[in-house]
Specification:
three-stranded mixed beta sheet; 15 helices; eight-stranded parallel beta barrel
């Protein structure tokens, strides 16, 4: 009996990315991205020294993997087109080997009843473009738009759901603020420029898509981290949470949905001399190219409190100038990832989108649970009994179902991820997949218990 029934034609599936699954880093004309370069120069920054060369071998095993998607109930799947594969030099000639490869994937998915969702940028800046300044450079913005247009022209006849960027705030935070990703810069003003150009590149890609009169929808995928105050009774805590929300959510959500950056955020940046270099023409492009749909990645909330001690004005500016992070006592944790599990946030986000962002159509584009050492849950038949993952999905879907019942315009749920994949500097430390990938045994695939459960979820359109 299905207690939680989802709308007709709901998309059930999963999400991944080209750089995390394809492998074949030097095959078919592909050239290095920042990840290839960084691994070559600092392999010790990657868990167990496992780099991006082979990842999950999707390039060679996609037919098998698409059959496994079908076996686990997928009616949709999101991946990405690697810029460094489609246009290996970042600019210039389109690589026909890449066109052929992505055509094979798209056609195979459609032939098996799996709707392709395609993302364009998933942290994988071509090294040739990083050498020109990466997202700090207006020239790179134009190169990205040319890449986007080439993807639309080659695949837009069959791909009906497009995203310009996945989690554009991650290259900002990880690459230019907190030293998690290459280019390992800690400079908030440069981070702001990267964020601004990412938003601009999104708007210009939306414009390019519409210029081709294609029969599909385009949007962006944002990782939203709802900001909760330590105490709703303390005005200073509430203010701190609001400012954190401006920096980490509204900074992207407002311009892509409303065409404008939040006035309060602009005021704060101006006060600290942190505004980006911008032109009125480019701001008009952001204003005039509002997207069709929104992808929402959700993993964890952000909890904050008012500053315990005032920020040192002599220290370089960071958003934490205005708040301290707060660890709520008794919070439920994914201890493997170090992240709080708070399922109700998925409801809170959906209602916020309903009430404050025009109820734009959205789908949960990522949600998942990474666990280290899953082999210890292997059963006598050799597959992994990941009941914790089933529980995690159910508990989030209950809150998503409630939001949909209350009018939130959600049309799908994509788990991160279908098969275990390489996860940046964490490599294969934490596994997220419905399907196990044994990177030490010829990339052998095994469906986990959650994969069999996910098929029933999809068949019943609920649980």
């Amino acid at each position: 009996m299905t207690k939680y029934k989802f709308p007709d034609n709901f998309f059930w599936g999963s999400a991944a990315s080209g750089p995390q699954t394809e492998g074949a880093a030097t095959v078919g004309g592909r050239k290095p991205s920042i990840w290839d370069y960084w691994y070559e120069t600092e392999p010790e920054r990657f868990h167990n020294d496992v780099g991006p060369q082979n990842t999950s071998n999707w390039y060679n095993q996609y037919k098998e993997d698409i059959q496994l998607m079908k076996q686990t109930g997928h009616n949709s799947f999101r991946t990405s087109i690697q810029w460094s594969r489609l246009i290996p030099d970042g600019v210039g000639e389109v690589n026909q080997d890449a066109v052929d490869f992505y055509n094979r994937i798209i056609d195979e998915m459609i032939a098996n009843g799996i709707e392709p969702f395609m993302n364009l940028y998933h942290f994988d800046m071509p090294m040739s473009m990083q050498e020109k300044g990466g997202w700090e450079s207006r020239e790179v913005v134009d190169a990205y738009v040319a890449f986007a247009k080439a993807a639309f022209e080659n695949f837009g006849d069959r791909v009906k759901f497009w995203a310009t960027h996945n989690e554009p705030i991650v290259p900002v935070e990880a690459g230019y603020m907190y030293d998690f990703h290459y280019p390992n810069i800690i400079d908030f003003k440069r981070a702001v420029q990267v964020a601004y150009h990412s938003v601009l590149s999104h708007a210009l890609a939306v414009k390019a898509y519409r210029s081709l009169n294609l029969d599909g929808k385009i949007g962006v995928i944002l990782n939203l981290t709802p900001s909760y105050p330590r105490s709703t009774e303390n005005p200073e805590d509430v203010k701190a949470a609001h400012i954190a929300d401006l920096f980490f959510n509204r900074s992207f959500l407002d311009p892509v949905c409303k065409g404008e950056f939040p006035a309060e955020l602009v005021e704060i940046l101006a006060k600290h001399d942190m505004l980006p270099v911008a032109t009125s023409e480019d701001l008009a492009e952001i204003k005039n190219n509002i997207m069709d749909m929104l992808g929402v990645n959700y993993y964890q909330p952000r909890r904050v409190k008012a500053k315990e001690t005032p920020a040192d004005p002599n220290e370089p500016f960071m958003p934490e100038f205005y708040f301290d992070n707060y660890e709520m006592p008794g919070r439920k944790m994914n201890v493997h990832r170090g992240w709080e599990i708070y399922e109700k946030a998925i409801y809170d986000m959906a209602i916020d989108i309903r009430d404050n962002y025009g109820n734009i159509p959205f789908w949960i584009s990522e949600n998942g649970m990474g666990v280290e050492g899953e082999a210890k849950f292997r059963n006598g038949e050799g597959s992994i009994d990941d009941d914790y993952r089933i529980e995690f999905i159910q508990d989030h879907l209950k809150w998503l179902h409630k939001a949909i019942d209350e009018g939130a315009n959600c049309f799908g749920y994509h788990l991160w991820t279908c098969m275990d994949n390489w996860s940046w500097t964490n490599a294969y430390k934490n596994r997220y997949g419905l399907i196990e990938v044994d990177i030490y045994d010829n990339y052998k695939r095994r469906v986990k218990k959650s994969g069999n459960w996910y098929k029933k979820l999809s068949e019943n359109n609920g649980f």
